[in-house]
Write a structure and sequence with these properties.
Elements (H helix, E strand, L loop, with lengths): L2 H12 L1 H14 L3 H22 L1 H6 L14 H6 L15 E5 L7 E5 L1 H16 L9 E5 L2 H4 L11 H4 L1 E5 L5 H14 L3 E5 H13 L10 E5 L5 H11 L2 E6 L8 E3 L5 E3 L4 E5 L4 E6 L10 E10 L11 E8 L4 E2 L5 E2 L1 H7 L6 E10 L2 E8 L5 H14 L5 E6 L14 E2 L4
Parallel strand pairs: 3-4, 3-5, 5-6, 6-7, 16-19, 17-18
Antiparallel strand pairs: 1-2, 7-8, 8-9, 9-13, 10-11, 11-12, 12-13, 14-15, 16-17
The structure holds zinc ion (ZN).
The site of zinc ion has 7 residues, from loops.
């Protein structure tokens, strides 16, 4: 594999800032726990002071407050309403661009970014990948659902050659059986070391590979699943199809590189990138420690999780967290005042192997719609037993409508959601 060092050399020349950032990030990862937490504390104090001095939004909202825990929470509505006021006065407006998240709710959120933020994001991703044994210059194949990223100028659409980047991106906005076959062929020919992409897309490809008993390249050492909640059943499919470890990545477009799983399957928080708080209801608040273009302090990202004590056998100094398997708006709330976790609805369909895709959507306090792509279709008996379960476990007044469909539309960002609650 003489190609790999050559690629790495070319890529480093092409993206010097990315490799400088990567070296800094790797140096932090070599500190001990005490050292990285001290750095995090310093970085947090630094970003708060910077925001109060250079960002008119925070200058206004932080007035008179001195304790971090009393600082106001930054909601998505705040970002939307005060986007312009969130840009630091030190920013070069000609370099700042507006990016968009598709948002798991399907409602796009605009934010400021620049080339430096982008390069740091990519460096952070490279550090995560290195946890699998991957090294810069080795090939990665991306399966990406967000249309905005795969066009020219997008995250993966930048105009550099595939050879140098050692990276190829498949635009997976929608797909057919024929396309899945073509992707499996590409995978076999390209011989990537890593796969990266949306959980639902990788799981769908894995299901196809297993069903058709297609050969997969021996070069694969890891699958990085991102952007969507990774279900256990999806992880198992990927492990079986690609015969390698699966790593769940946690980050968003507005705050990338929040946490990532290591080889021992534990989720480590990147404390040199973020300061993370988990409220009593597990609602996560995230402060970016690196973003001085548009500081994001105590940002309510819409995910749930908790911080864990203890160390991991992998030796990484970064502390541990657990994601809750849901986002705030994936919860089903009944008219009787009960809140039901989405995993309940996912579990109801366990073992129904004829289902290729599904989505539960609550359309009223007492009504839930289950859309399924299934072959053969679900029987009336199955529908009846699902309704019985929901009456018994969720709410005696909740009615189920079963819709057998050919496909389930994704959100604007290309993400698939298994369970959608009523909007707040
Ligand atoms: Zn670990």
């Amino acid at each position: 594999m003489i190609e790999t060092p050559l690629r790495r050399w070319l890529h480093r020349r092409q993206r010097p800032e990315r490799y400088t950032r990567l070296e800094e990030l790797l140096a932090t990862a070599r500190l001990d726990r005490v050292g990285i937490l001290r750095k995090q504390r310093d970085d947090l104090a630094g970003i708060v002071a910077f925001a109060a001095a250079h960002v008119s939004y925070y200058r206004r909202r932080f007035a008179g407050l001195t304790d971090f825990a009393t600082l106001p929470i930054l909601t998505k509505s705040d970002v939307t309403a005060d986007l312009d006021e969130l840009l630091a006065d030190t920013a070069d407006r000609s370099e700042a661009k507006i990016g968009h998240t598709g948002g798991s709710t399907g409602k796009p959120l605009a934010f400021w970014y620049d080339e430096a933020k982008h390069e740091l994001m990519r460096a952070g991703m490279m550090r995560s990948y290195m946890g699998s044994g991957w090294r810069p210059g080795q090939k990665i194949l991306n399966f990406w659902g967000a249309r905005q990223d795969t066009v020219s100028g997008g995250v993966f659409g930048a105009g550099y050659g595939d050879f140098i980047a050692a990276e190829r991106t498949i635009a997976a906005h929608e797909y057919t059986e024929r396309q899945l076959h073509a992707w499996a062929d590409t995978l076999l020919r390209y011989q990537p070391v890593l796969l990266q992409g949306y959980a639902s897309i990788l799981a769908e490809l894995a299901r196809f590979v297993i069903a058709r008993r297609l050969p997969m390249p021996k070069s694969l050492i890891g699958v990085y699943s991102t952007a969507e909640v990774l279900e256990d059943s999806q992880r198992e499919l990927m492990q079986r199809a690609f015969s390698c470890s699966v790593f769940n990545q946690y980050g968003s477009r507005e705050i990338p590189n929040i946490a990532c799983e290591c080889r021992h399957g534990n989720m480590h928080v990147f404390t040199d990138m973020v300061f993370l708080e988990s409220a009593a209801d597990e609602r996560l608040l995230i402060t970016s420690l690196t973003n001085r273009l548009m500081p994001m302090i105590r940002y309510e990202i819409g995910d749930a999780g908790r911080l864990l004590d203890g160390d991991c056998a992998c030796g990484s100094p970064f502390p541990l967290m657990a994601m809750s398997m849901c986002r705030q708006n994936d919860l089903i709330r009944t008219s009787g005042g009960k809140t039901v976790h989405p995993s309940y609805f996912n579990k109801l369909l366990y073992g129904m192997t004829q289902i290729r895709q599904y989505q539960w959507q609550q359309t009223a306090p007492d009504r839930i719609v289950l859309s399924v792509v299934a072959s053969p279709p679900l029987s009336d008996d199955t529908a009846g037993s699902l309704q019985e379960n929901i009456h018994r476990d969720v709410d005696a007044t909740m009615s189920l409508e079963l819709r057998q469909v050919d496909e389930i539309p994704r959100t604007v960002s290309g993400k698939h959601r298994f369970v959608i609650g009523l909007p707040d």
